[in-house]
Amino acid sequence: MRTTAELREGFLSFFESRDHVRLPSAPLVPPADDPSTLFIVAGMQPLKKLFLGLEPPPARRLVTAQKVMRAGGKHADLDDVGSTARHASFFEMLGNFSFGDYFKDEAISFAWEFVTEHMDFPPDRLWATVFAGEPTLGLGEDEVAIAGWRRVGLPRERIVGQPRSENFWQAAETGPCGPCSELFLDRGAERGCGDPGCGPNCERCERFLEFWNLVFMEFDLHADGTTTPLPTQNIDTGLGLERGAMLLQGKESIFDADGYQAIMAWVAAESGVAYGDSEQATKAHRVLADHGRAMTFLIAEGITPSNEGRGYIVRRLIRRAVQQGRRIGLRDVYRLPAVVVDQMGAAYPELGQEAARIEEVVRGEEERFSDTLERGLKVFEDLAGRAAVSGDDAFTLAATYGFPLELTIELAEERGQAVDVDGYRARMAEHREISRAGGESDAQRVADFARAAGFRTDFVGHTKTDVITQIGALEALGGGRFLAKLRESPFYPAGGGQVTDAGTIELDDDSGTVAELREAYRLGDDQALLFEGTGFSAGDRVHAVVPWAVRFPTMANHTATHLLQAALREVLGEHVRQAGSAVRPDKLRFDFTHERSLSREDRAALERHVNERIFANAPV
Question: Up-side HSE of residue 136: CA atoms within 13 Å toward CB?
Fold first, then answer.
């Protein structure tokens, strides 16, 4: 067992041979009822309901190789990737789990056997840490774990007690918890600090590296800080695949192991710059290898670049990879996912199934960013003589040249510049308010106008698309635009995924004076309207119309979103949840949660279900 792939399969097979049921990796996106993290950040996270007793486990012994992503929220390693030898945004966590079956003795025996007989780590270089006890919890040193390690042959002097901060696991302030025990490999005195007290968790050196954590879930933590035994004792372990491979292969960094080197070899061949040629080359190779893996797995799960949430992480990954690639002469980064698919597709078949779409998504985002990257870098270079990058400059780089704030900060740090992050955020907030309010007027102006009007518009658009009404209030904005409040309005303001209606108002005097609706603002259960036209005043009687050619297809598409959601739940399962939508006259978009992209068969089944209900012509 030498390669990363061999370690992954060796671990899974070892525990399968010891009566564990192998489960495939859960998606990187947590289920809809787990809003605690943006992505799966731990091997046990997909099994939380099993550990909490909310669902029965499929077997009492399980083993997994779980995809993990730490980029976003408090679990964010993305900005450190490339600058250190350890940080990665995407990695795999190997874990064996027991639900009321075996406990400390067996977990320790399994770990020791696998590490010494299959990973071939010398027993005399292994150390273990255990929970040293905590008086406030009423718990003493974990004598059972100590006895377990001694039983497999680990001398007492290499079993080190550690405080609660290091060796006690809890998911929250209250609930299931327990002591943990970690395995460390002594990598030799030449990597040490020379201090006589050097050992596991030494803050002065990295001679001892932790690689496997065994969590013994046996207590229920109460609000008063006391603990009581759980009805069943559970095991949750985690062995980081990339770190395990690094130690197995005797490397200094996870990026030196074969899991990343195969990608870096492609980068070197395509760019002509090898890993380690310079500090810049080292960083670029690490970023491309890590981000290439991360973007490939995320896009395979249906996440595409956007300006919010998970989509924003994908956008940052692609753009950071493109920017670092340019620094070493690598272009067409969209080819990188194919290398990842070739390397990891056997373990994760969904990568091969989605390979063409992954390349298409990365190519599109790279082209969009490349259009402005060179100009943005020139603008950034013009700021080199300043002590700091101002909030206005950072905003311009983001809004005009597509530079995520994090990229500006990273580039500025490389030349010792600070970035006015607060100023940037203030400008971005101002920009968003103006965008919402329709350009020249801002959101506050619209709200103040509606409040000063002194009445609430009666929305009648659910039953009427053509109504004679009165302009109850009007405010000219210049350029032929004006805000108006109608007594009765057929115009639907954007909300719930449905776009604002199109339509007109016309003076009810046969003069033919018409104004076009440009925006309808939703103000709670009230609304204000932005029109373009001239010849209107407060008090005018007007004919307000939403063309049937606009309203009818919008209604049809709105109904279709409900039909599609019902079909998705029938075809894919009850776990499907709506995650967003856009309803327009010409098309609809429906976002939903699911662990994988749709297959050709899935799409055919969905089309059949929806069309059957449309052809039934049921009243709505």
Answer: 8
In the block, residue with structure tokens 């896009």: 299
pLDDT of the residue at 436: 47
Residue 414 near residue 383 (C-beta atoms within 8 A)? no
Residue corresponding to tokens 């395995």: 183
DSSP H or E stretch at residue 443: helix 443-453
Q: Are 235 and 102 in contact (CB under 8 A)?
A: yes
What SS3 class is residue 98? strand
Task: Output the CA torsion sign for 610, 611, 613, 617.
Answer: positive
Residue type, 237: T
CA angle 492-497-500, nearest 5°? 30
Gap between the Cα atoms of 395 and 430, Å rounded: 11
Question: CA geometry: angle at 402 spanning 400 and 408, to 5°?
Answer: 105
3-state helix/strand/coil string of 330-350: CCCHHHHHHHHHHHHCCCCHH
- The Cα 493–Cα 484 span in angstroms is 13
Of 573 and 335, which is predicted with more confidence? 335
Query: For residue 83, what are the CA distances in angstroms to 70, 79, 259, 336, 579?
Result: 16, 8, 18, 21, 35
* Per-residue burial over 275-293, b = 16 or more CB atoms within 10 Å of its CB, e = otherwise: beeeeebbbbbbbbbbbbb
Q: What is the crossing angle of helices 279-300 and 258-271, to 10°? A: 110
CB 52 within 8 A of CB 99: no
Q: How confident is the model over 247-300, as pLDDT tens digits? A: 999 999 999 999 999 999 999 999 999 999 999 899 999 999 999 999 999 999
Instruction: Compute the Cα dihedral for 108, 112, 114, 119 and give only its sign.
Output: positive
Q: Within a 10 A sphere around the Cβ of 256, how many other Cβ atoms?
A: 18
Helix (H) or strand (E) holding 566: helix 548-572
Strands 175-186 and 168-170: antiparallel
Q: Residue 173: its pLDDT value, please?
A: 77
Residues in CB range of 186: below 8 A, 6 or more apart: 125, 126, 127, 207, 208
Provide the 3-class DSSP secondary structure of residue 259.
Answer: helix
Angle between helices 279-300 and 355-382 (to 10 degrees): 140
- For 209, the enclosing helix (H) or strand (E) is strand 208-221
- Measured between alpha carbons, how far is 505 from 547 in angstroms, rounded to an integer? 11
CA-based nearest residue to 65, from 50, 81, 46, 48: 46
Q: Could you count the other beta carbons within 10 Å of the beta carbon of residue 619? A: 3
Alpha carbons within 13 angstroms on the beta-carbon side of residue 370 total 15
Q: How far apart are the first and last CA of the chain?
A: 63
Could you tell me which residues come within 8 angstroms of residue 508 by beta carbon, excluding any fewer than 6 positions away?
468, 540, 541, 542, 543
Residues 6 or more apart whose CB falls under 8 angstroms from that of 485 comprise 449, 450, 453, 455, 457, 471, 472, 473, 474, 527, 528, 529
* pLDDT tens digits, 349-378: 999 999 999 999 999 999 988 877 888 888
Could you tell me whether strands 388-389 and 227-240 are parallel, antiparallel, or unpaired per DSSP bridges? unpaired
